[in-house]
Amino acid sequence: MDWISPRRLNRLGMLNMNRRNVDYIARYNDRSSYPLVDNKLKTKLVVAEYGVRTPKLLQVVRQQHEISHFREMAEDLGGFAIKPAKGSGGKGITVITGRDGDEYIKASGARVDSGYLQRHLTNILAGLYSLAGTPDVAIVESLVQSDPALAQYSYQGVPDIRIVVFQGYPVMAMLRLATKASDGKANLHQGAVGVGLDIGSGRSLNAVQFNRPVTLHPDTGHALENIAIDAWQEMLEMASRCFEATGLGYMGVDLVVDAHQGPMLLELNARPGLAIQMANGRGLLPRLRSIEALKRPHFTPQERARFAMEQFAAL
């Protein structure tokens, strides 16, 4: 794997934060759409109308008195995820993978009781994890059973796939793999591994951790150079449909591959980060400009996905 320096990336058209904010986010994202993507519950409801699968919604906790109902609902569940509707960066998400008597087992292996989970729900309602510190609601979802073909590369946490979508066109993608440093979360800033993916095939290109090149996962030891994502075109079409669902011209679409349900949407991001360029060893600007220059835009998600696979395939 060849490492491409930030200076060379700039020559290749690396998008910087100021240009992203002014030329793409401010220009193509209507602020009226932000509450839709900043709230995971609203996102789930709207994308379902466009045929985009999400993890099954088990319960919504809006008021303190409803927490007792959560305890009753969770009695028969082996696993589930608790998320703040308005959280970001993975903050406030608690994943329960199993039960042992009265104890719940977290993804990290730690054991907690129902009191811990109820206190966590109280903190979510108080807005401890929300974007602006405002009161929030908690959503409880079914547990994603990660596809074993991808799960083997990740440490504890579920690997996810970030696809940057511009005007409905998938333009760049990466696989995010949890590590011990990232505490089992697929968050690059916390130490997850980012693996650039070829838009044309869903195969791995480069891999980075803390913006430095890696060839092996630091915890699992697996090589990162021959990863291939199944159902790749389906995932690109799913990401493309989120454009119609939200109207956002520039966004990050985060997907997972469930062992039984296939690709599913985790969340949308109206301000996707730029580290995806480091993972790909390529800049976003040439791809964004090629979409802006289109004389005859493609109107269906299928057409846009096929165009992206042909236009942005790795040479």
From TrEMBL:
Any one GO MF annotation of this record: ribosomal S6-glutamic acid ligase activity
Coiled-coil segments: none
SUPFAM superfamilies listed in its UniProt record: Glutathione synthetase ATP-binding domain-like
Signal sequence, renumbered to the chain: none
Name of the protein this chain belongs to: Alpha-L-glutamate ligase-like protein
Keywords, in A-Z order: ATP-binding, Ligase, Manganese, Nucleotide-binding
Matching PROSITE patterns: ATP_GRASP
GO biological process assignments: SOS response
Annotated GO CC locations: cytoplasm
Domain ATP-grasp: 44-295
Keyword Nucleotide-binding: yes
Top-rank taxon: Bacteria
Keyword Repressor part of the UniProt annotation: no
InterPro entries to which the protein is assigned, alphabetical: ATP-grasp, RimK-rel_E_lig, RimK-rel_E_lig_ATP-grasp
